[in-house]
């Protein structure tokens, strides 16, 4: 890669990282409603019988995801950008702990680690140099807040920001989310999620038509961090 193209890739990869890390796993705070409350919230938001059935499924999905306090997974991120003829693909691993944050390691095409917590984002490059990154803002930040609430069992934030369509079962589900707020729609056109016990796919379509897709594999629940992972969160 030449320097200009490398900067382009890193800039867009960081933007996608900020979006996808915020969306995919980090339910970093306790939700204002419990998973047990979610069916009532969903039913109030969806009056018809068909919508009630979908809302019930969404509530069960949220409760299922909220049950896990920690997850390890591998990821493959594919970005399709209008400015490039071919998609950008990156791979790596992540560790999510609800009350600590996310460790996001990109291993290809270059090595970099991000540690996301309440205080912000810390970038650690291949040589071990730490740099503080700004938090996500605007549409990404609003979607992040919604997802954090949803993964904690609070569906009111989900329905206040999106029109939601769901199908499948808790064992194999699909969600389609379309922004119902004009300000959010200026940044995000569409979200798709698939999964079962864990989130397996997240696709974000931006208002400009660019897409970022994350495919997760090897997901497993965790009860404790490794010493190295604890050190990263401690440093953050």
Descriptive notes:
Keywords: Signal. This is Outer membrane lipoprotein carrier protein LolA. InterPro entries: LolA/LolB/LppX, OM_lipoprot_carrier_LolA-like. The chain is of the alpha+beta class and 236 residues long. It has one domain. 34% of the residues lie in helices and 37% in strands.
Layout of SSEs?
Layout: H1 3-24, H2 38-45, H3 49-66, E1 70-80, E2 88-97, E3 101-108, E4 112-117, E5 120-125, E6 130-133, H4 138-151, H5 156-161, E7 162-169, E8 172-179, H6 182-185, E9 188-195, E10 199-206, E11 211-221, H7 227-235
Antiparallel strand pairs: 1-2, 1-11, 2-3, 3-4, 4-5, 5-6, 7-8, 8-9, 9-10, 10-11
Helix pairs in contact: 1-4, 2-3
Spatial order of the strands forming the largest sheet: 6-5-4-3-2-1-11-10-9-8-7
Secondary-structure element pattern, one letter each: HHHEEEEEEHHEEHEEEH
The coarse silhouette is globular
Helix segment count?
7
Span between N and C termini? 31 Å
Q: Got a strand count? A: 11
- Average per-residue pLDDT, rounded, comes to 76
Quickly count the domains.
Answer: 1
Specify Rg, calculated over alpha carbons. Answer: 17 Å
* Structural class based on helices, strands and sheet pairing: alpha+beta
Identify low-pLDDT runs.
Answer: 22-46
**Mind describing the biggest β-sheet?**
11 strands, antiparallel
Helix content: 25-40%
Query: What fraction of the residues are assigned to beta strands by DSSP?
Result: 35-45%
Signal peptide: 1-35
Pfam families: LolA_3
InterPro entries: LolA/LolB/LppX, OM_lipoprot_carrier_LolA-like
Protein name: Outer membrane lipoprotein carrier protein LolA
């Amino acid at each position: 890669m030449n320097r200009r193209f490398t900067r382009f890739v890193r800039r867009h990869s960081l933007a996608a990282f900020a979006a996808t890390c915020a969306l995919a796993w980090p339910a970093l705070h306790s939700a204002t409603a419990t998973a047990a409350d979610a069916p009532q919230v969903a039913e109030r938001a969806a009056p018809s019988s068909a919508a009630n059935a979908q809302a019930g499924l969404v509530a069960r999905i949220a409760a299922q995801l909220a049950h896990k306090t920690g997850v390890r997974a591998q990821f493959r991120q594919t970005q399709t950008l209008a400015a490039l003829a071919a998609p950008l693909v990156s791979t790596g691993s992540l560790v999510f702990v609800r009350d600590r944050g996310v460790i996001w390691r990109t291993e290809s095409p270059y090595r970099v680690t991000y540690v996301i917590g309440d205080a912000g984002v810390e970038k650690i490059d291949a040589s071990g140099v730490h740099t503080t990154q700004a938090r996500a803002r605007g549409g990404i930040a609003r979607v992040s807040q919604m997802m954090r609430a949803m993964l904690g069992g609070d569906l009111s934030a989900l329905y206040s920001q999106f029109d939601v369509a769901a199908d499948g079962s808790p064992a194999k589900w699909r969600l389609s989310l379309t922004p119902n707020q004009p300000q959010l729609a200026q940044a995000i056109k569409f979200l798709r999620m698939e999964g079962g016990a864990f989130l397996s796919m997240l696709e974000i379509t931006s208002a400009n038509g660019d897409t970022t897709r994350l495919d997760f594999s090897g997901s497993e629940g965790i009860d404790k961090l490794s010493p190295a992972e604890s050190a990263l969160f401690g440093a953050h």
